[in-house]
């Protein structure tokens, strides 16, 4: 696998086909669990693990799975992996497991997992498939983390609340001090929709801005038309995924 | 300009909005005199915030600023927000609510004329969901001096147990929940006047007068206020006749909370409401029904705001199904989707 291929996969996963902002897949956990940054990132990391392993397993088995029944087989593989993750969370991060609750088993039904298995792993070699799973998952994680941070900051005035469930020595950071009244609606479901809508708008605005800048650049004008490959378009200014 | 069929007289947005503001003055006067003078501070604060937010959003969207800022539409939104809120909410709550109304509910959807939801009601619902405690601290009518109110608005210590009273709707709900024998027993309390909340009856009367001015100048048509009042009277009247010990009378419902303000100034929002004559009737009646249901059985004391938002969602459907027949065309087959 060439470095170019790695770069393409990374760019696709982290930005261009970002699961949360461009494909809008897996909205259920994005909206439901992003009430705090720790919850969101934890669920995101669990999803990365499942995506990487599912892509690896499906890619390795892709020549043995009958085409006609591939979807049930994919789901079985994903479900088995999710069960492993679910039990591991229960064993090692029990408090967090109680908070995330049903959303860990629900990773099975997260469309982004099945979508990457079907669209990528079933057609590519194990190494690049695993890498694709990780990058797609990371793309989801930074969106989840940012969304969780925005909602937590506005809604409760804290960041990293619940971090003690993972690292017992740390505690939440009260950004606005103790008497911040809290903007409760940011934590309630409407806040999730508003915040995600604003993030998607920002994502589109940045893309439009970048595209316009690429077009204006005179030396590259001959080659850099609107049909540029993702990698080429990424070169002028790799957008910082930190948003 | 506003309502179809379009009138021939050129009515500018500025003139329409100016008349709406003028029509609010009687209600505001009664409010300031009978209930709480703090409302004047909130109105000023809300207006300033609204104009600033409007100018900011127009600048960000690269639209002409001067025309849109002087058309008074932002100020109407600001006044409606302030009038829906308790008059002693802290200053930042009013500002936050107006920012939500202007930036989120109005400009993120495309500005004046594009918003599917009533901006003032979006602000009210966001704030009552986000700050239920602050949003339910109403001063008992005429009980607080202006200085005290100003202090509360500007962020004085909120030691409110001795100062605030329940609104009429709130008192009725709490009274009935805590096992009062009947509506009559609850209505003996000090929060109540002749037929609504004490002092508030005059405010409702002021809104009614302003609303009639709007009707007379044809800023609004009769459909929405009539349907709203009729539907609210009908449903509350039916249940009141059925069991007067558990359900309040239609007069109480009409004079309490924001019913009159809603009937003439909120339900009639020309942008987010239905536009066909039959559609307007359905739209306003639906709001009245939802408002009564929430008032009688829901968790929030006042349900008009939620009713408005829920019916806003239905507007495209209502308008589509109530399109009047165009002269010269035959009526479409009933019931089919177009």
UniProtKB/TrEMBL annotation, chain A:
Keyword Cell membrane set for record: yes
Stretches of Low complexity bias are at: 219-231
Q: Which GO terms describe its biological process?
A: electron transport chain
GO (cellular component) term, any one: endomembrane system
According to its UniProt record, this protein's enzyme class is: translocase
Question: Does the UniProt entry include the keyword Translocase?
Answer: yes
Sequence intervals crossing the membrane: 20-38, 71-89, 96-115, 127-147, 154-176, 182-206
Keyword annotations for this protein? Cell inner membrane, Cell membrane, Electron transport, Membrane, Translocase, Transmembrane, Transmembrane helix, Transport
Where is this protein found? Cell inner membrane; Endomembrane system
What's its membrane topology? Multi-pass membrane protein
What is stated as this protein's family in its record? Belongs to the NqrDE/RnfAE family.
NCBIfam families for the chain = PRK12405.1, rnfE
Which PANTHER family would you find in this protein's record?
A: ELECTRON TRANSPORT COMPLEX PROTEIN RNFE, ION-TRANSLOCATING OXIDOREDUCTASE COMPLEX SUBUNIT E
Instruction: Describe its function.
Output: Part of a membrane-bound complex that couples electron transfer with translocation of ions across the membrane.
Name it.
Ion-translocating oxidoreductase complex subunit E
Q: Which organism is it from?
A: Thauera terpenica 58Eu
Automatic annotation (TrEMBL), chain B:
Q: What class of enzyme is it?
A: translocase
Q: What membrane topology term does the record carry?
A: Multi-pass membrane protein
Name the GO terms of the biological process aspect.
electron transport chain; transmembrane transport
The superkingdom listed in its UniProt entry is Bacteria
The answer to keyword Translocase applying to this record is yes
* Alphabetized HAMAP family for the sequence: RsxD_RnfD
Q: What is this protein called?
A: Ion-translocating oxidoreductase complex subunit D
């Amino acid at each position: 696998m060439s470095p170019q291929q790695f770069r393409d996969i990374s760019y696709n996963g982290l930005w261009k086909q970002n699961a949360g902002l461009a494909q809008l897949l897996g909205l259920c956990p994005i909206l439901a669990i992003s009430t705090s940054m720790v919850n969101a990132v934890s669920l995101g990391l669990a999803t990365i693990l499942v995506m990487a392993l599912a892509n690896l397993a499906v890619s390795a088995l892709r020549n043995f799975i009958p085409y006609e029944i591939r979807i049930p087989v994919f789901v079985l593989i994903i479900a088995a992996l999710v069960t492993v993750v679910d039990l591991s969370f229960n064993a090692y991060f029990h408090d967090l497991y109680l908070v995330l609750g049903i959303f860990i088993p629900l990773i099975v039904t997260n469309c982004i997992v099945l979508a990457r298995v079907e669209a990528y792993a079933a057609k590519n070699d194990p190494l690049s498939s695993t890498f694709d799973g990780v990058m797609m998952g990371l793309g989801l994680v930074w969106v989840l983390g940012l969304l969780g941070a925005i909602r937590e900051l506005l809604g409760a005035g804290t960041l990293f609340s619940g971090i003690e469930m993972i690292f017992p020595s740390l505690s939440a950071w009260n950004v606005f001090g103790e008497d911040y009244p809290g903007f409760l609606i940011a934590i309630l479901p409407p806040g999730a929709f508003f915040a995600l809508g604003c993030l998607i708008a920002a994502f589109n605005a940045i893309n439009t801005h970048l595209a316009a800048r690429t077009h204006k650049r005179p030396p590259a004008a001959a080659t850099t038309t609107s049909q540029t490959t993702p990698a080429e378009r990424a070169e002028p200014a790799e957008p910082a995924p930190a948003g | 300009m506003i309502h179809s069929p379009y009138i021939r007289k050129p009515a500018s947005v500025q003139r329409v909005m100016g008349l709406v503001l003028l029509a609010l003055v009687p209600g505001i006067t009664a409010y300031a005199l009978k209930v709480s003078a703090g409302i004047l501070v909130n109105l000023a604060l809300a207006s300033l915030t609204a104009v600033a937010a409007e100018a900011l959003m127009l600048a960000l969207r690269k639209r002409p600023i001067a025309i849109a800022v002087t058309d008074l539409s932002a100020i109407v939104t600001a006044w409606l927000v302030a009038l829906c809120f308790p008059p002693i909410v802290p200053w930042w709550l009013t500002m936050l609510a107006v920012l939500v109304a202007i930036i989120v509910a109005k400009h993120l959807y495309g500005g004046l004329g594009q918003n599917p939801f009533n901006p003032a009601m979006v602000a009210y619902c966001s704030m009552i969901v986000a700050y239920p405690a602050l949003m339910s601290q109403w001063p008992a009518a005429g009980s607080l001096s202006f200085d005290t109110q100003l202090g509360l608005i500007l962020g004085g210590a909120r030691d409110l147990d001795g100062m605030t009273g329940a609104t009429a709707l709130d008192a009725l709900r709490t009274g009935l929940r805590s096992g009062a024998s009947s509506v009559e027993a609850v209505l003996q309390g000090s929060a109540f006047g002749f037929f609504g909340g004490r002092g508030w009856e005059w405010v409702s009367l002021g809104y009614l007068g302003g609303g009639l001015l709007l009707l007379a100048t044809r800023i609004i048509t009769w459909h929405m206020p009539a349907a709203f009042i009729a539907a609210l009277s009908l449903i509350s009247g039916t249940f009141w006749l059925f069991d007067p010990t558990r359900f309040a009378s239609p007069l109480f419902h009409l004079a309490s909370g924001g019913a009159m303000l809603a009937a003439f100034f909120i339900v009639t929002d020309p942008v987010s409401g239905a536009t066909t004559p039959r559609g307007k009737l359905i739209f306003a009646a639906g709001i009245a029904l939802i408002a009564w249901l929430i008032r009688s059985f829901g968790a929030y004391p006042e349900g008009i705001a939620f009713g408005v938002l829920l019916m806003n969602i239905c507007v495209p459907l209502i308008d589509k199904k109530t399109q009047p027949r165009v002269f010269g065309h035959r009526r479409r087959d009933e019931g089919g989707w177009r």
